[in-house]
Amino acid sequence: MTMMTVTRPRSATLLTLLVAAACGDDGSFTTNLTGTATDAVTDTDASSSATTTPSTTGTVTTDSSESDSSSTTAPVTTTETTTLETTTTSATDSATDTDTDTDTDTDTDTDTDSDTDSDTDTGGVDAELCVHLGGMDGIHALHQGFLGRVVVDARINAYFLNAAVDAAKLTTCLDDQIGEAAGCAGVTYSCLDMKSAHLGMGISALDFADLAEDYSLALDQHQNSHPELSDGDKAALLGALGAMAGEIVEDPGDDQTSYQRVGRKPAIGAMVGAIGEVGTFLDNVAKDFVINGFFLNTDFIRLHTCLTRQLSGIDGPAVYGGEVDPPAPDVDPGVALADPCAAMTASHEGLKNPNDGDSPIMYEDFVALVGDLAAAMSSAGFAAEDQAVMLGALEPLCVEVLADPNECPGNSQTVLVKKSKLALPIPDDAYDGSLASMACVELPVIDDGINFVGQVAEVVLGLDHGRIGDLVLKVVSPTGTVSTLMSRPGLAEPDDDGQGCCGSSSSLIKAFPVTFRDDGLVDAEMMGFGAVVCQDDGFCEYFPSPGAGPGVDLGDFQGESSKGSWRVCVGDAGPGLGGAIDAVTLIIDKVKIQPKP
User: Fold this and answer.
1) pLDDT of 41-53, one tens digit each?
2) Are the C-beta atoms of residues 84 and 32 closer than 8 Å to each other?
3) Do residues 271 and 281 touch, judged by C-beta distance below 8 A?
C-alpha cells in the first residue's frame, strides 16, 4: 500500500530560480548586467601632437572626421572592464573632445585628417563579455551545463523535475537574458521579469544560494573551455545574480513552509528512508505486522521516490504525478515521464493483507500507516508543527486509500428520527397490497451534506393490535423504494393482496415495541411464540421477512438518497381486531460517498 499523491498540486510554470522564467511574455529586463564595449578612437590634431582615446560604454562610435575644440587635451586612459551598469552613449559622426583642465587653450583648429577609425560597428558586433563567453553558442553550452547540475542537486531539483517544466523554453529564456545582458548582438530578452516569473513559488534564501553555487560551478567548468572568460567576468555575472535575490526570494528566513523548515527534499528523503534504516518510515512499515502484508510485492525504490515527492509537494515545489525521466540513475529512480507515481485510488485498489485473512485496506490500517509516518518524523527531528502540517495534508487521502472510504472520519453519521404518542388508527381489514390501504407515519430526514444511505439500521414499532397474523409492515424511502419488514406471520400467503386467513394469533402492545434489523435474532415470519410478543416470549428483535411483499431486507435502501420523507406503514388484512400505531423510530447510517453496489 502506498501512501502518495499530492497533493497540493502546485503550478509548475517555468521554475527558473535563476534568471529565466516563462517565455513569451513581454517582461521588462531588470538585470543590469552589461558588458562594456571600449572603442579607442585616435584623434590626430593638426595643431597638437596629443592623442586622445575616449572610452565609450555600450555603443561603438565610428568617426570619419573629428573636430577638437580644445587645443590642450588631457590624455584619457583606456580600460577594458565588465560593469554591472548599463550606460547609453549616443554616437555622432563628429566626436568632440572637451577638456575640463583649468588650463584652457583657445585654439580652435579643426582636425581635417582623413584618418578613419578601423572599428566601424553599426550595432552588429558582439560586446566583449559576450565574446568571452563564447557568443550565443557558448552561453547556451554554459546553461546546458548549469541545468545539468541543477537537476541532480537534491537541494533544489524538486523545482525542476516536474513534467510541466519546459526545459527547452527555460533554456531559451536563460540564454536570451544572459545574451542580452552580455551584449550579444541582436539578442533581446522577452520573457517574464524576475518577480513575476517566481511569484508564489516560495523560493527561500537557501534555495537561491544553492542555485547560485551551481551557477558558479558551471562558470568554472565553462572557463576551462573558454579561457578568455576571466575571473572578473565570472564575478560580474555572479554579482548580477546576487542582485536578483530581492526579486526572486520570497522566504528570506527559510522558514515559511514545513518543506523549508524540515530541511527540504534531502531531509524528507532521509526520513522516508529504506528497509533496514532504523527509525525511517519504510523501516517502520516493514516491521509493522498490522500493515506490512500489503507491501509484499512493493517496488521500494519507486515507493521511496513517490513518497518523497508526495511529502515534498505538500507545501513544497514537487508535483506528485508529474514525474519526469530521471536525469541520473540515483535521482528520483523508479519513475518516468511515461510511468509517473500512481493516483491514490488506482494504486490501492484491490490490495489485500494476507496477515489479516486477505482483508482490504480498512481505517485501522490507514491509522497504523499514519502512526508509522509520525514516528519516523519524530525520529528525524521534525518539529510538532511540521508533523501536523504533513499529517493534516495526508488525512484527506483516507478516502482514496480505503476500500470503503466512508470509514474515514467525517464521512458517516447515524441519524435517529422518532415520532411517539401518535394513537394513529390502523384501518381494520382494509389492506389490499397498496400503500393507500395502510396507516403511514412520515419521518423527515434533513439534508446535512451526508446524504447517502449506508444502511437502514433499525425500524422500531410500538403499536397495539390483537392479531399479528393480520399485519403487514412496510418501509418506503423518499425515492419510492418499498421494502417489506413483515407479512402476516404464520400465513404463507401466495400474493401480497390482503387475502386469505389466518396467521399467528399473538398480539402486540405499545409498551413492548418490536425492532426490525437485518442482523435481528429471529425471522419476522416466526413472530408470536407467546401470547404477547416480546412481553411474554422475550423475543423483541427480528430480521425482515417480506413473504409475498416487495423487497428483501433493509439493505434494499443502500446507496439511495437519505434526505426527504420516509414512511413506515402498517396494514390490517383481517376483520374484527383493530389497532393503532403509538410510536415509530427510524435509524439510518448515512454516508457521504455513495456506496458501490
Assistant:
1) 333 333 333 333 3
2) yes
3) yes
Residue 472 parent element (H or E): strand 471-476
- For strands 514-516 and 541-543, give the pairing: parallel
Average pLDDT over residues 552-569: 98
Cα separation, 159 vs 430, in Å, equals 76
What pLDDT is stored for residue 172 in this prediction?
95
What is the Cβ-side half-sphere exposure of residue 457, based on CA atoms within 13 angstroms?
A: 13
Distance CA 379, CA 271 (A): 8
Task: Give residue 7's Cα distance to chain centre.
Answer: 3
Query: What are the residues whose beta carbons fall under 8 Å from the beta carbon of 308, sequence distance 6 or more?
Result: 265, 268, 269, 272, 318
- Structure confidence at residue 576 (pLDDT): 85
pLDDT in tens, 233-291: 999 999 988 999 999 999 999 999 999 999 999 999 999 999 999 999 999 999 999 99
Distance CA 475, CA 221 (A): 81
74-110 pLDDT per residue, tens: 333 333 333 333 333 333 333 333 333 333 333 433 3
Please say whether the dihedral angle defined by the alpha carbons of residues 294, 298, 304 and 307, taken in this order, is positive or negative. Answer: negative
End-to-end Cα distance, the chain? 24
* Cβ-proximal residues to 293 (8 Å cutoff; 6+ apart), any chain: 352, 353, 354, 355, 356
The predicted model gives 529-545 an average pLDDT of 96
pLDDT at 72 over 60: no
Place of cell 499529517: 391
Spatial separation of the C-alpha atoms in residues 376 and 236, rounded to whole Å? 45
SS3 of the chain: helix, strand, coil, percent, to 5: 30, 15, 55
Residues 6+ apart with CB under 8 A from 251: 202, 203, 204, 205, 207, 257, 260
- Grid cell, residue 214, equals 551551481
How far is residue 439's CA from residue 155's CA, in Å, rounded to a whole number? 73
Give 56's contacts (C-beta < 8 A, 6+ positions apart).
37, 38, 39, 41, 89, 91
pLDDT of residue 17: 31
pTM value is 0.70
Q: Are 192 and 348 in contact (CB under 8 A)?
A: no
Write out pLDDT tens, residues 383-413.
999 999 999 999 999 999 999 999 999 999 9
Burial class of residue 385 (count of CB atoms within 10 Å of its CB; 0-12, 13-18, 19+): exposed
| Alpha carbons 411 and 432: distance in angstroms, whole number | 41
The identity of residue 166, as a single letter, is D
Q: From 163, 111, 194, 159, select the one nearest 312 (Cα to Cα).
A: 159
Q: What is the pLDDT of residue 412?
A: 96
DSSP 331-359: SSTT-BTTBPPPPHHHHHTT--BGGGTTB
**What's the rounded Cα separation, in Å, for the pair 574 and 490?**
13
User: Are the CB atoms for 44 and 115 separated by under 8 Å?
Assistant: yes
- Which grid cell is 318? 514537487
